[in-house]
Amino acid sequence: MFVSEKEIEIRYAETDQMGVVYHANYLVWMEIGRTSLIEDLGYTYAGLEREGYLSPVTDLTIQYKASMKYGQKATVRTWVESHGKLRTTYGYEILHADGTIAALAKSEHVLVKKDTFRPVSLRKVDAQWDAKYTEIAKVKS
């Protein structure tokens, strides 16, 4: 299983009144992790958009395990959990510097044509990218 890792330096603006990272910032970090994974594989999400495609989130689950605070560094580990004809599910671990799990998450995405929002198979858009996702997926379809 291929796992991309991206370190995030937690900024003061990402914390709430209690001094811990506000829960919605984990979603931003997941996007950073997903983008990093795609780039590590030699592709770009921006390139996909330029070709007229988007990949909206259709489902998201997140479990918060241990809070994070300003001044700490988080590591976002991202992988392809599963990849099918129309749906790709990414898995995430967000870790403290000592390896303690701060959050576990999954996000499901569907590739759509930008102008119509009609679903399209990644295989039809980029067969090599599709094959790479199939190869590295944790759960084989």
Automatic annotation (TrEMBL):
GO molecular function: fatty acyl-CoA hydrolase activity
Keyword Hydrolase in record: yes
InterPro entries with a match to the protein in the record: 4-hydroxybenzoyl-CoA_TE, HotDog_dom_sf, YbgC/YbaW
Record-linked Pfam families: 4HBT_2 (PF13279)
Keywords annotated in UniProt: Hydrolase
Record flagged with keyword Ribosomal protein: no
Entry's family note: Belongs to the 4-hydroxybenzoyl-CoA thioesterase family.
Protein name: Acyl-CoA thioesterase
Organism encoding this protein: Paenisporosarcina antarctica
